[in-house]
Specification:
Layout (H helix, E strand, L loop, with lengths): L2 H7 L25 H11 L5 H12 L2 E7 L2 E6 L7 E7 L4 H11 L3 H8 L7 H7 L12 E5 L9 H16 L3 H5 L4 H6 L36 H5 L20 H5 L12 H21 L10
Antiparallel strand pairs: 1-2, 2-3, 3-4
């Protein structure tokens, strides 16, 4: 097809909007904050699919991805395009064999730094060097390591629908750094189970401390029953007085939820934390009124 024909006769399609789709948390700029998320996005961008990358980012940010399922070596998804029914997307990732994972486990075993990071749920920054040492790669580095397919009529592969799933997976990598292990055929716990932690020097520093042994009770004495006297049980006399304390509306709405970070693969037209912040902001004053007895039990959040 000539560029003249493509330019004059091709009309960009307009996708059907999705309610409750999986929407990216990043509104602008690059996807992925961690080095492993950026490495995953770099694999996609190495395909040189041009404008479809921009359309894929737009699909990811506008919530056009209906669903994503992540398994070992396989990602399946549904992405809503210009047709009435969503397109089916499949991303096959070449998995490492059992013998290859055993090579990696032996290379990681005996190195306290890597084991400590893995036990703590962190991805060691230079773990790729371990893979390279045994002539393997953590991330797919060849086009044949990835097989992508979409049911859309676009002749390009990967298309914008596949690109949208890639970008959302990049955000999921930020939340779960060991997702790449799963895509390569083994999750973190499985890898730890085949690693030889016993050969690590000072291995006791990497394990949970032994529980403190409680002194044995004298079995000849009968167990002492609990007392019903509040003074003896709680250390204070029984009272009907309410303990005075300052109760106020939090200065930051949804502070605890914000500490959890972005909600994984959130389905909605609005950012999850922004939505929850508004709920907290409306619920807190009502809760304070109920606590102080300044309103009836029919208080609502309308």
């Amino acid at each position: 097809m000539s560029s003249w024909y493509y330019r004059d006769y091709y009309t960009p399609s307009v996708p059907h909007r999705v309610k409750g789709g999986i929407k990216a948390q990043t509104k602008r700029g690059s996807f992925g904050q961690s080095w492993w998320a950026k490495r995953w996005i770099a694999v996609l961008e190495s395909f040189n699919i041009g404008a479809r990358l921009g359309r894929g980012r737009s699909y990811a940010r506008s919530g056009q991805v209906v669903s994503i399922d992540i398994g070992k070596g396989l990602v399946t998804a549904e992405v809503q395009g210009s047709r009435k029914t969503p397109y089916s997307v499949k991303i096959n990732v070449k998995t490492l064999s059992e013998s290859e994972w055993k090579k990696i486990a032996r290379a990681l075993s005996g190195q306290a730094f890597f084991i400590a990071k893995l036990l703590a749920g962190e991805m060691p920054e230079n773990i790729e060097d371990v893979f390279k040492a045994v002539k393997l790669t953590l991330f797919p580095d060849k086009l044949k390591d990835l097989t992508t397919n979409c049911s859309c009529p676009d002749w390009s592969n990967p298309c914008k629908h596949i690109a949208a799933v890639y970008y959302l997976l990049g955000e999921e990598f930020d939340r779960d750094p060991f997702l790449i292990f799963k895509l390569r055929g083994m999750d973190r716990d499985q890898l730890l189970s085949i690693m030889d932690v016993s050969s690590v020097p000072n291995k006791t520093d990497l394990t949970m401390p032994e529980p403190v042994q409680e002194p044995e009770q004298d079995t000849q004495l009968p167990p002492e029953p609990l007392t019903s006297d509040p003074m003896s049980f709680w250390g204070q006399a029984k009272t009907n007085d309410v303990v005075s304390a300052e109760v106020s509306v939090p200065t930051v709405a949804g502070a605890l939820a914000k500490r959890l970070g972005g909600f994984p693969l959130w389905r909605g037209q609005q950012n999850f934390l922004e939505f929850l912040e508004k709920v907290y902001a409306k619920a807190s004053p009502v809760g304070l009124e109920i606590f102080l007895g300044e309103t009836g039990t029919d208080a609502s959040l309308k």
